[in-house]
């Protein structure tokens, strides 16, 4: 039993190290030797648990999908306390996702791997729970007649997907003097809580810009 526990602990440490390396270096530049060094194990020990880099990437993506799914589910539950409409859930879910990407290298690694592997091997890119949820909520918003006439739910889902991906990519860009135009104290979320970081502040500003074109005034989420 103790040996099995140590093996599982080593496996989890390797996965965490792989996520950090994939997050920082990307799939192509990552190597088993680099990941083993980050995990402080031998390459042989790493290969015992994960035979190839592709196996590691698949496992990291699986963990990222799991944590992302939990985040999305929790966000939707929290929206019930502020109205619970599909628009409320969309706004709160996107803020929760950006907060996750700001703080969790596993989630960020999953996003980066999804992009990079889709370019080289579409079969490895897998599906994305947060994109599915955004699509579902956009359809619910249309069913609730919360969207303006002529606004297509599929287009809304695509737009929000681009926004989330864009803000997540922006996190990776080094800060420059031009970034000073973004206020240190941003708007508040639909959860009526202060925004937690620069990326989430940017998302709040983006929502302020796009919501009037998407949603009936009566469908505006609480606090936005």
UniProtKB/TrEMBL annotation:
DNA-binding annotation, residue ranges on this chain = 31-50
- Does Transcription regulation show up as a keyword for this record? yes
Tell me the Pfam families matching this sequence.
Answer: TetR_N
The answer to whether UniProt assigns keyword DNA-binding to this entry is yes
| HTH tetR-type domain sequence ranges | 8-68
Q: What PROSITE patterns would the database entry show?
A: HTH_TETR_2
Q: Which InterPro entries does this one have? A: Homeodomain-like_sf, HTH-type_TetR-like_transc_reg, HTH_TetR, Tet_transcr_reg_TetR-rel_C_sf
Keywords, comma-separated and alphabetical: DNA-binding, Transcription, Transcription regulation
Region: Disordered, residue numbers: 174-195
* Protein name, as recorded: TetR/AcrR family transcriptional regulator
